[in-house]
Structure formats: C-alpha cells, structure tokens
Amino acid sequence: MTALFGKVIKKHSDFIYVKSNAGLFECKIRERLKKEKIEILVGDNVKIEEINTETFQAIITEVLERSNFISRPAIANIDQIIIVSSLFEPDFDFVQINRYLCLAKLSNIPAILCINKIDINKNCALRTKISSIYEPLYKIVFTSALEGSGLQDLKKHLSGKISVLAGMSGVGKTSLLKKLCPDLNLKTKDVSSKLKRGTHTTRHVELIEIKNKCFVADTPGFSYLKFDNIMPNKVNDLFDEIKTLSNECYFSDCLHLNEKNCNVINNLDKIDQKRYESYKIFVEEAFEYKKKITFSGNKKEEVTKFIDGPGRKKTKLIKLGKKNEK
Ligand SMILES: Nc1nc2c(ncn2[C@@H]2O[C@H](COP(=O)(O)OP(=O)(O)O)[C@@H](O)[C@H]2O)c(=O)[nH]1
Ligand SMILES: [Mg+2]
Ligand SMILES: [Zn+2]
Q1: What's the N-to-C CA distance of the chain in angstroms?
Q2: C-beta of 175 in contact with ligand 1 (< 6 A)
C-alpha cells in the first residue's frame, strides 16, 4: 500500500489520528508540511503515505482543500452545527441561542436546533413558544437524553453528515452522544445543584463515527462568544427574518435601530421580541469592534495561514493585528 486518503478525527500533541477505509492510523506530519506552516485540523481530509499496516502508523503528506472551518473549537469540513440547549437546568437562553445560530450563519454552516431535557416539564408553554419562534427559521428537534425521546429524529438529521454539537455546558451534549453511540466511553459531569450548570468535561475535539461516514464532534461548552469580528451593518445578514424585511427600508445602510422609514421597526410585531433584542445586542458588540479598529490604530489583516498545495485554494484567516507590529 503506497498511499491512502482519510479523515483526521483526533489530534494529540504528538500524533494525528486518521480514519481511512483501511482502519485508524496514528500519523506524524511530513516535515515539508510543517515547514510550510500547514496546520492540520480535526475534520481535514488528508493523504497518508509510508503506511505500516502492522503498527497502523503512517505519515501525512498532503492536506486536501477545506470546504469550511470554524476556529473555536478548530474543526474543518463541517456539514452542520447542532446547537444544543436544554429547556431547563440550565434554563433556555434565547439570546445565547440566537448567538450560536448567528455564529453558524457567519461561518456559512447550516444550523439545527436541538432542545434537550424535555422530560423535566412535559407540557410547558416554553416549548410551544420555542417551536413557534424557530420552526419557521430552522430545523428543530426536541429530545430527552435521559428518556431517549427524539433520538431517532436527531439520528435522521445526523445521517451521512459531519456534525458539530455546540451549546452551553450542562445542556446534555455528551449525554446525547452517549445515547447515540452507547459503546463510547465519554464523560458527563453532574450538574452542580447550586448553579444548575455542568462544568467542562470535554477537553479535546474529536470526531466520533456513530455510523459509517456519520461523524459527530462533541465540544466543550463555550460560555460566551462575542461578535467582535464583524461590522454592524453585516449583523442584519445573520437574521433571516430581519434581512427579508430590510429590503424595504428607506436607507440602504439602515441598521434598524431608530432610523426613519425603517421597514423592520415598522414590522416589529412580526418579529420575535427576543430575536430583535439579540440583534441589537450583536450590533452593539459589532460597534465596539468597529470603534476598536477605527481608533486604536489596529487594522484588519488578512493572514494566509494555509499555503497552497496542488489544486488547493488559499484559505484565509482574518486576524486582528496592530499597525506598528509588522
Ligand atoms: N433531566 C435530564 N437531564 C439530562 C438530560 N441530558 C443530560 N442530562 C443531565 O445534564 C447533565 C449535563 O449533561 P452533559 O451531557 O455532561 O452536558 P454537556 O456539558 O452539554 O456535555 C448531566 O447530569 C446529565 O445527566 C435530559 O435529557 N434530561
Ligand atoms: Mg460535555
Ligand atoms: Zn431598517
């Protein structure tokens, strides 16, 4: 066997684990790739050579072009983000959910909502409210990792795709994954009774193959992500319902805050209040970013981190650097 193609499913300090049709290989990176500063991410499709089928060791010699990637946590070639939230314990947080949905949109990755812990209160008004707000906008599944309800539905959405589970700590991401894949030896942590929140137990990013070619990555719960790399007038694009209404605003650069003849403000009764509130919060954060880059002498730099290989486009990471730092 001279060469194979596979997918990076896990990174350790010294080794990169690549899943191929011939099995799982423990790999090192070819020196040339290191010199070219090619960073390999979980989810990358790679070529491996110098394959030893007895020890299952090999060398990564090429990284194929990525379709997309996210940076926190760093994962490439994602088909969809499953945004997990619990109804209770911790309480459903509309702004936080909108934040995750918008971040997925910003990365151009489809998002699905998974509302977990529905066993805690079976017929609650909150669930109905969540359905009415989000069903017109996103795919949504209601689950209980505890009782197993909704898992078939979730499985259907995961089938044949590479999905990332995202959401606050303690909402049940690892529990869901354990139910989907009972053989796994994953750690979940008890929600502290005082805070009603779990603590971080998922440290390394790893793609878990729950069925043939169906991968899921568990992530640690990010607690707070700010919109600190986007201009205020772009926030509009992250909310489909606001974007649609904005086509009829008088000013083309309308921010829908207090402008005259703003079609969004004129139709606020058609938008969920929490969605609009979230929109305003994110615009505010984007303004802070804009101020920062306008006044403090920082400038936006495009840094080409990943160098071309044959047939490979340049992938650009946007990085904020100081002007006089060169
Ligand atoms: N009642 C209830 N508790 C759940 C459910 N799913 C997870 N939990 C509990 O919530 C806590 C946090 O779960 P975990 O999977 O570690 O959350 P993660 O931080 O999102 O990975 C654990 O104590 C789980 O037993 C559920 O569907 N219903
Ligand atoms: Mg977890
Ligand atoms: Zn407007």
Answers
A1: 46
A2: yes
Q: For residue 241, how far is its CA from the centre of ligand 3 (angstroms)?
A: 12
Average pLDDT rounded to a whole number, residues 79-101:
96
Nearest alpha carbon, ligand 1 atom 7? 172
Contact 146 CB / ligand 1 (< 6 Å): yes
Q: Is the CB of 169 under 6 A from ligand 1?
A: yes
pLDDT tens for 242-273 read 999 999 999 999 999 999 999 999 999 999 99
Q: Is the dihedral of CA 292, 295, 296, 300 positive or negative?
A: positive
69 confidence band (pLDDT: 50, 70, 90): confident
Listed in sequence order, the residues at least 6 apart from 180 whose beta carbon sits closer than 8 Å to its beta carbon are 151, 154, 155, 158, 210, 216
116 CB within 6 A, ligand 1: yes
The CA distance from 194 to 198, in Å, is 10
Give the range among 64-78, 191-205, 281-295 with minimum mean pLDDT. 191-205
* Confidence category of residue 213, pLDDT binned at 50, 70, 90: confident
Q: Which atom of ligand 1 is nearest to the CA of 167?
A: 20
Domains of the chain with CATH codes = 3-65 (2.40.50.140), 70-218 (3.40.50.300), 232-295 (1.10.40.50)
Q: What is the pTM of this model?
A: 0.83
